[in-house]
Amino acid sequence: MKIRFIILITLLFGGLHLAQAQENNLDTHKDSLNYVLNQYYKLNLKVFQQSSTLKDIDNIFELFTDDFTYVHPNYGGVYTREDLYNGYKRNQKNGGYDGSVIDIKIENIIYGLNAITVSKRFVTKENGKMVASDEQMALFEFKNGKIFMIKEYW
Q1: Which residues neighbour 37 within 8 Å (Cβ) at sequence distance 6 or greater?
Q2: Is the pLDDT of residue 8 over 60?
Q3: How far apart are CA 151 and CA 69, in angstroms?
Q4: Which of 44, 77, 117, 139 is the most buried (most CB within 10 A)?
Q5: Is 0.70 topped by the overall pTM?
């Protein structure tokens, strides 16, 4: 009888420990996705400044997998990692990053398994006033801790 009781208690505490470990893994997973997402927006904000460099663009692309894809149906469809990189370089060279974007405000985040959906606004300075854009939605998918795909829905 004592042996059964000891086995039962051991199984019960073992099950509770396993459940807590799984919950901690979920938090850790969510935190790691959130970290990469925040780095992505932080680095983009830096690139959007007039003084940005090619190294700033390279820092963004370190967050992407080698087979990364950017999808934006409203702006031409599907872009490979190389297409997007060349677009960033072209915009920088042509003065497209002029410092007018002063913040990227995340309004809402929904977490999934290796995915995050974000509602965000660009904040610009126009005539001395801060102006927030309309909300924009984007889906981020992750693979091995890096961004695998971004799909914009605006």
Answers
A1: 109, 116, 118, 140
A2: no
A3: 8
A4: 44
A5: yes
